[in-house]
Amino acid sequence: MGQLKLKKHEDILNNALDYSEQNDVDDDPESYVVVGQDFEELVSLEGSVVKDDEEAYQLYNSHAFRNDFGTRKGKKEYRNGTKIVRQRFFVCAYEGFKKADGVVPKSYKKIDRRTGCKASVQFDVDKKTGVYVLSKHSRVHNHSMVPANKRYLIRSHRNISKEQLTFLTTFSYSGTKLADVLRAMRKEVGGEAHLGFTIPDAYDAVNAEKKKKLDGCDSNQLIRWFATRQANKHGFYNDFQLNEFNQLNNFFFWREGRMQSDYEAFGYLLIHDTTYRTNKYDMICGPFVAMNLHTQNIMFGVGFLLNEKACSFEWLLNSFLTSMGGKKPVTIMTDQYSAMEKAISRMPDYNCKAHSWIERLYGLKEK
Question: Known Pfam families for this protein (predicted)?
Fold first, then answer.
């Protein structure tokens, strides 16, 4: 049965490769909202009874979806001297106004379209039973609603189910491009509007799952193995990067002692290819290789990265140079990925810009 299901999924992916549709993921649903164009919800939820906080929010959020607006979780009020909830509030996504940012200017700032909307619901929590009773429903909004065909983009109505996340991660870890998997899912449900989430949501969720896996036993065991090898084997070098939460970020770089000797002799040309990916964790495998006098491939080291950002490549290149005593290669050949181009900024040091071929490559770096 498992093989049949997998075969079905593969067929879906194959049929989807030639499927294309307009992708309006970058569309902003809030741009359609008109401030001052009052709207009143036709149905009142007063008197509704639910068992807990989660059901209370789902009740209001489902109602908001039918009426083409988004929601946010509001404040809780507690009984005196306790952590027992007495009242719970949920509000329209346009409630209030955002606080001004700090003094440091941002290169990109999302437009604030909050309108101070007063639409909301109030739940009173029964002291004995703990059930939530919707006691007040303010239904008047001071803005128009989002068009029905854009409401799936509203943040409070977007969610990736466990089944969808499993589907995404399974094919992603097996080497299938996430874009192809998403294309198949869009076709299967009849368009992105029926997915329940946007494309950036999918990438964020898969990356979050990837980081969870890296926080487990495999990564810790590998680091311990490298530490033992470095202590017992002369010339072995490894490095890894942690984020501010003491979690693995760009993972690691390593090389053997023989690799350093080879680099001393043949390191004038360095080839770094980042097109390889591991199956289980979908990490980027970037080997540093070259060629010796017998036209044989030799390896100087290997790095593994979680993403293809310029700062990740910069860390990897710095780690490589540190392991090689700071000796820089004369020439670097890469797959010319844009983030890598930003990380490499050594060409002026060698006064090679007069050469037409190198000048063209240097121009690519400056894009």
Answer: FAR1, MULE
